[in-house]
Structure formats: C-alpha cells, structure tokens
Amino acid sequence: MSRNDGETMKVMVVDDEEHIRLAVDRILSRQGCQVSKAANGQEALSILEQEPIEVVFLDLMMPGMDGMEVHKHIKDIDPSILVIIITGYATVETAIEAMKQGAYDFIPKPFEAEQLRIVASRALEKIDLTREAERLEEERRKTLFDLSTEKSRTRSIVEAMPNGVLVTNAKGQVVLMNQAARRHLELDDTCRIGGRVQEYIADDSLCQFVGRLAGQQAPQDLEPHEFEVSSDTFLLVRANPINGDDGSYLGSVIILVDISAIKKLDRLKSEFVAKVSHELRSPLSTIHEQMAMVIQDMLDHEQSDRDQRILSRMQERTKGLIALVEDLLDLSRLEAGAAYQDVQAINLDQVLSELVAFYDSQAKSKDQTLGLELPEEGLPEIQADPKAVESVFSNLVSNAIKYTQEGGSIRVEARSEDGQVKVLIEDNGFGIDQSSLERVFERFYRVKNEKTRFISGTGLGLPIVKGILDDLGGSITVDSQPGQGSVFTVSLPVSS
C-alpha cells in the first residue's frame, strides 16, 4: 500500500495472539506496507521509540498492560499515529470508549482480509489528507510571511527614496506617503494619510491633473507638472495610473521631485545673461553705427577697396554680435516668462502678408522668388501676442532666404485644419541631413557644411521659435532632404 511519492505505509500490529499478528503481516505486506509486530504493550512501546510508525492495529484484551493503557502511551508519544482497535464481541464497549479517547477506527475479530485492507486504505487516505492539509497550511504561513516581509521591504525602500512618493486609491484618497513627500509639501510629520489629494497639495491644476488619471485605460507616462509650494520651493510632479488586469482604475502613483535648486540656477543664469546682454548691446550698437559712418566717409573720399572690405567685414561681425545679444535677451525673457504676454486676437492673413512683403526685397537681392498662398475664405483668428507671432515667422522666413541658393524659391502657405492654423515655410535650398534634423532646435546648434559655412547666424533662432510656440500652445515640425530643401510646419490653435 504505497503512496504517490513511492513511500510505504509503516504499520505495527499489537496482539497477544500470534496468528492475528501473522495474518495482519501477511495481508498488509502484500499491499506494500511495512509491518512491525508486538506481542504485548511493553514490546509495542519499545518499537515506537525506535521506529516511525503511522498506523497501529491494537488489541485491547492483552495480559499485563491492557490495550487502553497502551493507547494512552501511544498518544503521549505521537498524537498523529492512527490507532485501529482490534476487538472481539466482549470488548465492543471498551473499543467505543477508546475511539472517544482518540482511536481512529476498529475492526472486529474474526476479520476477513478485505475488511483489513479497507480499514488500512482509509487510514492511509486519512494520513495523506492530513499531511496535505499541513503542507498547504505551511505554504499559506510562508506566503503570508513573504508578503509581510515584501511589504516591509517595499515600505523601507519607499521611505528611503529622496523623491516624494504618494499613492492614491480609486477614490483619490492618499494611502501611502513617504517622509520625502511630507518634507517637499511642507507637511507636519504627524499629518495622517487617508484624505484626498487636495488636502495635502494646494494646487488646483495639479489636483485636476491627478484626477484625470482615472480616465487613463493603460499605464503611460503623462506630461510632468510643475508647481510652486512656496516662494523658494518648486516641485516637478510625475504621475501614472495604476490599472488592474481588466483595465479598471485602481489608483495612481505620484512622484514629487524637488527642482528648487535647478530653478534658482536657471534664474541666476537668466539674470546673468540679461545683464551681460544689456551691457553689450549699447557699445556694440555704437561701434556698428560709427563703422557705417567711417565706411561711408571712405566711399566719399574713394579710399582703397582693401580698407573698405576690412571695415565691411568688421561691421558684419559687429552686426552678428548685436543679433546674438538680441537673441540672448529674447531667450532670457522667455525663460523668465515675461515675454510676449500681450495676448489678443490676431488676423494671421495680415501678419503673413506684411511679413512676406517686408522680406521680398531681401529675397530679390539673391534673385529668389518669395510667394504667399492664403485660403480665399481667409484664416480664422488666433489668440497670441503679435510680437511673438511676428518673431516666429520672421525667423523662419529669414532662415529660408539665408539657406537657399541664389535663384531659389521660398513659398509660405497657410491653411485651417482640424481646429488649428497650419503655416508651411517651404524652400528648395540646401536642405538638412538627418543627423542635424534631430538637433536644429538645440541652442547654438548650426548646420555647417561646404554650402552653409559662410552663412552667419547665432544658432538661437529656431530654439526661440520653439520656445515661443510652446508658450502659445503650438508646435513646429521640420522635414528636409539635403540638396532638395526644407519644409517647416507651424501649428497654432484657433481661437475658441
């Protein structure tokens, strides 16, 4: 009688009648059991001290130590041992009493082989079920311990993080907040969790931002959000929804990063750039104007061409420095959020028409054609600062003229599409290679090759354009092929 794991059931028969012991041994051994035999109680207890026994067939009527006393000693040694009473007619009541005290079953004398096998099989099933239940209970305890350990480990990691961490449930209540979050939000250490996000964060736009996470059907990175806790504390917030396997919203995890030092550094840098630029602009403008006067005087007195070329080159370089100073000032104003705040309704048809007319003479000086295509019904109005819009398209058109060869063409096309005004500035000029396309909006980056290395510029025009469009809620893309030209596409939202 073997188990699934290949082990045999260990049985002991205790009876003063030898033929009973032999009968049990013969029947159960054929079933694969390992059978030990004892003629009395004392011998049985000695065997139990030396061998692991699972089932005992115990006769109650034995000389010396009777079966009831042996049964008591067996339970004291190992309560898990199953005791099956072998009883005759005269000991039925005693057998019932033994079962009340913990005996598993009984079998009457005389018994058939099949009866013995059935009782032994039931005992085997009982033992296996008990062990399986014990194994499952042990696994459950281990799982609970592992979960508890993992929970403790996770909490320790979260608490040790330098960034603030908040976790909310589906109702928007904060269920976890580490010390860094309390510090960043300037909350008291005794502040209890369980409230809604707005109870801890005094920023309406951020609370709305977190509230929108419930509408996300899958975890995804959302645009980071910045907000000011106090005059000296700025936080960058990143958040993601937590969704179940079925896509249901379970909550959100919010990461708070202290960017106060970065903000302070940016402010100092902007102040430095603005101060230096202001200090440079006046003397450079004066030098530029005086050079113009000297060159004009040399022309009037027919001075040497060589001297005129030298001074003209100096004047061109001075003009480039003045342009750099102006671009740096524009950038510092953009970073400070103080530029282009005069928002009003703009007729883009008029702005583009005047701009193209202004640059037409510059294009003709290079034998280029500069055209404008507007829809017959006109363009819808946009809400923006006129200076900002003019700066965007002035940069793009002047760039198109500079980076297009003599005899080339530049086309400006505007149309209304999907609630936006799209303006395309297309040229058939030198074009931009793929590696440079990824960097054209970086500050001070300029496309340099054999065709463009003589073109002067600051490398700040396109970064300024992108910064302005970001502030206006617009966007810009570029498509270009070397030797074939470029297309810059500006998108601006239509006034609602």
- In terms of per-residue confidence, which ranges show pLDDT below 50 for 5 or more consecutive residues? none
Q: Might you state the CATH topology name of the largest domain?
A: Heat Shock Protein 90
The shape is rod-shaped
Report the portion of residues in β strands: 15-25%
Following the backbone from N to C, one meets helices and strands in this order, namely EHEHEHEHEHEEHHEEEHHEHEEHEEHHEE
Report the major sheet: 5 strands, parallel
At the fourth level of CATH, the homologous superfamily of the largest domain is: Histidine kinase-like ATPase, C-terminal domain
Q: Work out the number of β strands.
A: 17
Q: Give the CATH architecture of the largest domain.
A: 2-Layer Sandwich
Protein described:
The protein has 496 residues and is of the alpha/beta class. It contains 13 helices and 17 strands. Helix 3 (67-77) links the parallel strand 3 and strand 4 (82-87). Helix 10 runs parallel beside helix 11 (386-402) and helix 11 (386-402) runs antiparallel to helix 13 (461-472). The longest helix is centred in the first third of the chain and has 48 residues, at 113-160.
